[in-house]
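User: Hi! Is it possible to get a structure for several chains at once, not just one? Here's what I have:
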Amino acid sequence: EAQVTQNPRYLITVTGKKLTVTCSQNMNHEYMSWYRQDPGLGLRQIYYSMNVEVTDKGDVPEGYKVSRKEKRNFPLILESPSPNQTSLYFCASSSVTVSYEQYFGPGTRLTVT
Amino acid sequence: DQQVKQNSPSLSVQEGRISILNCDYTNSMFDYFLWYKKYPAEGPTFLISISSIKDKNEDGRFTVFLNKSAKHLSLHIVPSQPGDSAVYFCAARDNYGQNFVFGPGTRLSVLP
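Assistant: Yes, the chains can be modeled jointly so their relative placement is included. Here is the combined structure:
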């Protein structure tokens, strides 16, 4: 089954404690991306990657890091989380040769206290 | 400042009638537009898209219209069904940066 998986689905952590949210896709997609969803703001793109070892900033990259060492994985790293990073996070992937439609993961709800 | 706007936070429609969801954008570099549907506790799912070189795209009950001069697009759902009740996001692709910008969403409620 074609899918995007994220782990963990729920995470409560404290300010300053480094964390990683994993994302994996099994569709051989070149494009992968991270979004955060906040009330009234919709989805805002954090980082995206056009292919392995190619990453670029989205609209809200501050406080986040990503890496793309393999085509299927695109982890999101919060080196020193802060309460304003409490949000619902989505990973997505798409093919750049077929269409631009993105397949989204189920989301990770992060709470930073 | 939001580059993609959905000015109606919510919309209620009777089952069987037409639902019209609107989206406005400001960036002339947007070259592709997409609509996504989102149910609670799930990720968004792709619905329909349109290239900036077209003005209409149809897929079953869903039609998207693009008015480039007005920087406006709309999603029509005919006939509306209770299962269409969800949050709908309009999204645009920036041809220059290859990134995507989403609107804040419109919550559609289709009443039986």
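Chain A has a mean pLDDT of 95. Chain A is about 0% helix and 50% strand.

User: Great, thank you!
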